[in-house]
Structure formats: C-alpha cells, structure tokens
Amino acid sequence: MSQKRGRVISTNNGRKQVSRVTVRAKEAVEAAGGSVRRVHYNQLGFRALLKPEWFEKKGRLLPKAARPPPKLKDKVDSIGRLPAPTKPIPFYTEEKEAASAPT
C-alpha cells in the first residue's frame, strides 16, 4: 500500500494507526483483513513520538497529547497517545473488555 500523505504510527497484526488515510486505502486494508485507526498528533506530538530522546536531552518533559482542532474532529478516530503505547491499543469494545479483565 502506498501512501502520499500522513504517517503510519504503529502497525501490528494488520492494525494500523495513521495520521491521514484515503477512503480507498482504508477500504483496501480492511478488505485484506486489517483495520485502520486515524489518530491526531500535532507537530510537537510527532516530535515527542518519533524522538523522545530530544526532550530528555534538553531536560524537558514530554508534552501532553493535543486535541484535534474543530475542523479535523470528524476526520480522526482518536487522540494520539504520548509517550507511545507499549501495548497495542484495543480497536473494538470486545478487546477493551478482554484487556481490562483480570488474568
């Protein structure tokens, strides 16, 4: 799959988190058995996600995740997480319930 705009944030087992995606690209991923979640990061959030050592080197804390502006609210599914998640984010409510259940 080629992508001209946006960045792929994380991939695992056919699940993708992207900043922007076209309808055709999203349909292609879902037809192949994957899923796509559109997340919002601003410029500072991308820097914190891709280069967290930059903040540590300067003695700064990681910034909080920014909410999308009103114009973009309907174009994103969720707000990006900072620092980057170490475990996969559940995409569906069944996965959320399974992840929160005690083992």
From TrEMBL:
Could you tell me where the Polar residues compositional bias lies?
8-20
Stretches assigned to coiled coil: none
Disordered: annotated segments:
1-21, 61-103
Q: Which GO terms describe its molecular function?
A: structural constituent of ribosome
Composition bias of kind Basic and acidic residues appears in 93-103
Swiss-Prot/TrEMBL GO biological process terms = translation
GO CC annotation: what is one?
mitochondrial large ribosomal subunit
Q: Which PANTHER family match?
A: 50S RIBOSOMAL PROTEIN L15 (PTHR12934), LARGE RIBOSOMAL SUBUNIT PROTEIN UL15M (PTHR12934:SF11)
Return the similarity comment. Belongs to the universal ribosomal protein uL15 family.
Q: What is this protein called?
A: Ribosomal protein L18e/L15P domain-containing protein
